[in-house]
Design a protein that fits this description.
binds pyridoxal-5'-phosphate; Lyase, Ornithine Decarboxylase, Chain A, domain 1; 7-stranded mixed β-sheet; TIM Barrel; 2 domains; alpha/beta
């Protein structure tokens, strides 16, 4: 079967290496591998297989449908639905043995009624907003909701979680305050010594930068895929420096051509050549997740060297100035993300050119392209 010239490559050994690095940071905590968003663009089922082989104790996804896919693929680990669950999806929770995160008291009774009607007890976790300011119940409301869950014979409160807003910014002191408030509240409940109960708060930033945040379980996402949570350099001085980016994105030169000085390049002529210019045309564009905001700013690797993107990115075409590189030809490999020879381009670098974060770059490229797995 013919396939696109453009492809995303994902290294299984890098995923496994990153999982091991997270594990060693918090050896006594269980690891919930975050595989939401199709494993941050790396492919949910393939990545879950790697993490399961590494001993992941649980998986985290955003929505019920993702959990169902994991079950249908045969995964038996606990699967947590992190973004909350609407009653329309309750049946699927029971059918596929998924663990919902309750975000407040709204669905405690409806879920208990459903569980009773099926005669099945279900584990739930409660999401507390301990300072993230996004989703969950206020710390002050948590004890009452915990009490309501405890009163339901068919519900079992198996955990309480919170989330850090600034785990990648140790200087703020935010994470230490949130961790302390979270532990004060949960200690007050006297629940944390119960068997089969887990407290969890740490995302990647927490694992590498917030000491004591490992608790019973951790929820690494971006670090499993090889990047520090706070962008380039944010993991300095921590084990996060040893993370290995798992994703590469490659294309091939579809045309090599020479244009004279003074040529306006592409839509809008945003770039006008100042010299006789050798161009490599790549059949890649914003349709492939290589966004228009990369025009006139990104760099790509050809022949192991960096070369600048010139002019606007089109839907399916991108121009690279390879005048300095010598004899670039049609068919040559271009690396837009990843390593070629001694040079490499990271998702953090692309994120800077796009004014976003590595997470978004990885999701975009992974969602828009064919993924090939390497060992
Ligand atoms: C996505 C997510 C994580 C993982 O965060 P990273 O910064 O990618 O490690 C952890 N916890 C929750 C609740 C999340 O939604």
């Amino acid at each position: 079967m013919l396939e696109s010239v453009n492809r995303v490559l994902v290294s299984r050994s890098a995923l496994a290496h990153n999982f091991g690095l997270c594990r060693r940071q918090v050896p006594s905590a269980a690891v919930m591998a975050m595989v939401k968003a199709d494993a941050y663009g790396h492919g949910m089922l393939e990545c879950a297989r790697v993490f399961a082989d590494c001993g992941a104790e649980a998986f985290g996804v955003a929505e019920v449908v993702e959990g169902v896919q994991l079950r249908q693929a045969g995964f038996v680990q606990p699967v947590f639905i992190l973004a909350g669950v609407l009653p329309d999806f309750f049946d699927a929770l029971f059918e596929y043995d998924l663990t919902p995160i309750l975000v407040d008291g709204e669905f405690v009774s409806p879920l208990a009624v459903k569980a009773a009607s099926l005669g099945k007890r279900i584990n739930v976790h409660l999401k507390v907003d301990a300072g993230m300011g996004r989703q969950g119940c206020l710390l002050s409301d948590a004890p009452e909701i915990v009490g309501r869950i405890a009163n339901q014979k068919y519900l079992h409160l198996a955990g309480i979680m919170a989330h850090f807003p600034k785990a990648d910014d140790p200087a703020s002191g935010s994470s230490e305050r949130i961790l302390s408030d979270f532990l004060k509240m949960t200690t007050g409940l006297g629940l944390e010594t119960a068997r089969g109960f887990s407290l969890h708060i740490a995302n990647s930033g927490g694992i590498f930068s917030v000491s004591g945040s490992g608790l019973d379980m951790v929820r690494p996402g971006i670090s499993l895929y090889g990047y520090p949570a706070g962008g380039a350099g944010s993991g300095k001085g921590t084990a996060a420096e040893q993370l290995q980016p798992a994703m590469s994105f490659t294309s091939r030169v579809i045309q090599a051509r020479v244009v004279p000085a003074g040529t306006g390049l592409g839509y809008g002529h945003t770039f006008i050549t100042k010299r006789t210019t050798r161009l490599a045309v790549l059949p890649v564009g914003y349709e492939d997740g290589y966004l228009r905001s990369l025009g006139d700013s990104a760099q790509v690797l050809l022949h192991g060297r960096r070369a600048p993107v010139v002019g606007r990115i089109s839907m399916n075409l991108t121009l690279v100035d390879v005048t300095e590189l010598g004899d670039v030809r049609s068919g040559d490999e271009a690396v837009l993300l990843g390593r070629q020879g001694k040079e490499s381009i990271t998702a953090d670098e692309i994120a800077d050119w796009m004014r976003t974060i590595s997470y978004e770059v990885l999701c975009l490229l992974g969602h828009c392209n064919r993924i090939v797995y390497t060992d």
